[in-house]
Amino acid sequence: MTAYDQLLAELREIAALASAQALLAWDQETMMPPAAAAGRAEQLALLAGLIHQRRTCERFAELLAACEADPELAQDDEATANLRELRRDHERLTRLPSTLVREFSETTSLALEAWKDARERSDFAAFAPWLQKVRDLTRAKAECYGAPAGGTLYDALLDEYEPGARSAELERVFSELRARLVPLIARVMDAPNPPADVLAGLRVPVAAQEALGRRVLSAIGFDLNAGRLDVSTHPFCEGLAPGDTRLTTRYREDAAFDALSSTLHEMGHGLYEQGLPKAERRGQPLAEAASLGIHESQSRLWENLVGRSHAFWEWALPIAQQVCGASLAHLTPGAVYRAVNRVQPNLIRVDSDEATYNLHVMLRFDLERALLAGELPVAELPGAWSERVGADLGLAVPDDRRGALQDIHWAMGAVGYFPTYTLGNLYAAQLWEAVARALPDVQAQLRAGEFAPLLGWLRENVHRHGRRYPAAELCRRATGEPLSPEPLLRYLEAKLTAVYAL
Hints:
Blueprint: H1 3-30, H2 37-56, H3 58-68, H4 77-93, H5 98-121, H6 124-145, H7 153-161, H8 167-189, H9 206-220, E1 227-231, E2 237-241, E3 244-249, H10 256-275, H11 292-306, H12 310-324, H13 333-340, H14 354-373, H15 381-393, H16 419-438, H17 442-447, H18 452-461, H19 471-479, H20 486-499
Parallel strand pairs: 1-3
Antiparallel strand pairs: 2-3
């Protein structure tokens, strides 16, 4: 075996360990009994340590160096991309001591259970000690990585999720976005004839909602023979292995279309996972997502650009009426389209409309940077949260469950993750403009329930590349332009102007 063959064999074994780790994490979110929390934390910590050891050991370093020195591999574009990304990962991982890796995994696993309990009881004080521990360990990780040239410690964490991104540049883009969004939201909220909320008061049994979600998943192209749809406190997607992509959602009888929106969102992640070349490139960077911003672009594209379109509801509403029964019989596609595009500031990020959603992300972006820097003590987070919600959304936060405890991310130690949601919206809108140019009949295709052309375009231009290109370059190759807030602003302004008759 050549050094490269040996390196790929190592990566396959490491990927098998990572799959086991991910399966245990999925089970913790969906099936695990609460009393198993301590044992599960120990299991996850052990696997995290083993994976870190395999990725940073002397043998791995020697194989990587030997491959980088091979002139034949330098002529192979796929190998060159793999080695570039493996070197990047190796340099980051070797800066983390194994003791920190294991402690971080164990602590965040226990913190996740503490968060679930505190959220259920709306008791931030009960979670605060765990958040302090996670914050301290996250800070320790950032210090091990070190601030990138010209950047901050926060950027070292951001780089985990969106390689190469810098908070200063994100702040500039977010400010530009906010400057156009805030007056747009104000115009919409002052509109004399807002669309009727025809979905208010509807009740649909959970079993019917689940059946509708599965029907839509299959029609769009998510392979349920290679995946699952389950329930969790916070919906998520986990691509465990080739042929095994898990989605979760959540249901409320009085919010049937919210569940469908959540399912579409996670399906977008799942389609990306199923479209990555995992079977033939198991464990290689070429079989992994380019970034979380790109990953999020896929979920937001299907949830919003497709799922909030008039064309989609012309196809989906008759199916929903067939599956869910008489409670939806009075609805029309136009009325549902206008209802799902209502703008109404909401306390909950995942329930927010497209216009106000990014204000939620900016709030979290600012607060987590302040937490990491020590400028915002953990105990003062609920107050700071309430102040920002009041200033940005004009709402009063009634309790911790709908305030600082609503998101799972900080319990997981995912600091630097939140900005990727807005990056996902930006990428999604820009990709959609490219789709419209490449598939001029896309609206007619959606109306007819023909999703294969759109999915095929995404497979060709996004999914199949994995980490072959950095996110910024992938965006440029797929759309012909560097990432810009303009496509998202054009999309929102055009849609809301029409829906609200501005």
